[in-house]
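hey so i finally got around to running the thing on that chain from the lab meeting. sorry it took forever, my laptop kept dying and i had to restart like 3 times. anyway pasting the input first so we r on the same page abt which one it is
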Amino acid sequence: METPRPCTYLEDEVASLEHRVLLDVGADEYDAMLARGWRRFGPDYFRPACAACDQCEPTRIVLADLAPTRSQRRALARTAHLEVEVGVPTIDAERLHLYRRWHATREVSREWAPSRMDARLYRLEFAFPHPCAREVSYREHGRLVGVGICDETPTAWSAVYFYFDPSCARMSLGIANVLRTCAIAKARGARWVYLGYHVARCRSLAYKAGFSPQEILVGRPADDEPPAWRTRATPLSSRPPAG
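ok and heres what got predicted. didnt touch it at all, straight out
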């Protein structure tokens, strides 16, 4: 358990994560962990354990009933020409360069701390050998423009991280990536796509509420406690027009 520290999402809160460093976690075991709010970077599995705040909501999209909004469908249309490939996460100079360019724009626009990402850290967090690890990459005329790091389990996909070419911002690649990941997951028989944690007051995470229908985990269930998920109310901005 972490010592409480300033929250990276909400300036007026303190945060603490529960961590488990695990090797040889199988797909079924990880599936059960996802259903209880756990996430993963490399061998580090974590979930919020804040004593005085419950603003981080583990959330997942219900694939059987997914209904993209008009703006989300436009994002898909703008990216329809891209080449999409699903494979195992890899580390190379092309991906590192793209990640650094993307992160540099966030350092300016959102005042993020400078990135420490190098080949060793990328390999540990994004390309760590794991039976569930997947990468969804996007190319425009052969040029890498987006990379989605994901996990695939027997019942779900987990969207772990996404970065893209800043010059392609008008394509809404982030929104399109969620929808394409949902399509890939559904085609492979998954029931949900986990989006990680939604924090309503955090600008960079608020977009997650826009995908419907969606479920939110209730509490922090223990390993031997059945997880309970409730349906999130559809945001007004995401509802189709009347009539």
